[in-house]
Amino acid sequence: MLTFRNINILYCCLLVLLIGLHIGIGIPVFVYSLLLFSYSLLVFRGCVNISSGFFLPVICSASTYKKEIAISFDDGPAVNYTSQILQVLSAEKIKAAFFCIGSRIKGNEKLLKQVYDNGHIIGNHSFSHHFWFDMFSSGKMLKDMQMMDDAMQSVTGQKPKLFRPPYGVTNPNLKKAIMKGNYIPVGWSVRSLDTVVKDEKKLFEKIMTGLKPGAIFLFHDTSETTLKVLPDFIQEVKKQGYHIVPLDKLLHLTPYA
Fold this sequence. Notes:
Shape: globular
Number of strands: 8
Number of domains: 2
CATH superfamily of the largest domain: Glycoside hydrolase/deacetylase
Number of helices: 9
Largest sheet: 6 strands, parallel
CATH class of the largest domain: Alpha Beta
Distance between the termini: 31 Å
Order of helices and strands: HHEHEHEHEHEEHEHEH
Strand content: 5-15%
Structural class: alpha/beta
């Protein structure tokens, strides 16, 4: 398995080998550039591929043969669509996970409380969801994550233990922050791309291709397309003999500290 540690060991060995060849027989300098370029590509792939476990293990699905899946929503609570999505879930008697942004809780306290009171799990999706969040120091990341904890705890009385990285990006600094904060990192196995795909039919077809036991679906409760597709998705999942279960039940995790 390719990990950050293994890649560093491998490339250090390759660098030593190249230096030896350079001294012994002479090799073009551009070979060092190729080595650096290939290393950078691997590290970049590890950063953006949350399921790779490149920097740290992230739970992206459940290992099971049971026809059970979980659905999750990122980026709320939002005035638009969160409440409507809650209505759909309530009508279908489905429990989901909402990975919320702390800065969006202020002014939406009642909405967050509704999510919690309806029996859904609330996870930490950072406080700022800053575009450059993955460039923060580990200390700044942890402070940001803890601000989300405080905002949620003031409304629900619960401190989230599950954390989903903004944009799904991981790196060494985030690993340190997660370990210091004692969070459990959770990703997904099916990314709906519902913030990009606006065609309901295309979105429905895309997400259905990922249906399999143990899958974790990523939606956004800020997406109108998701709101429109969600009822049909739930009905089709049930039609195929699947059960949508709470994320903590699927993964056998405790969602709150």
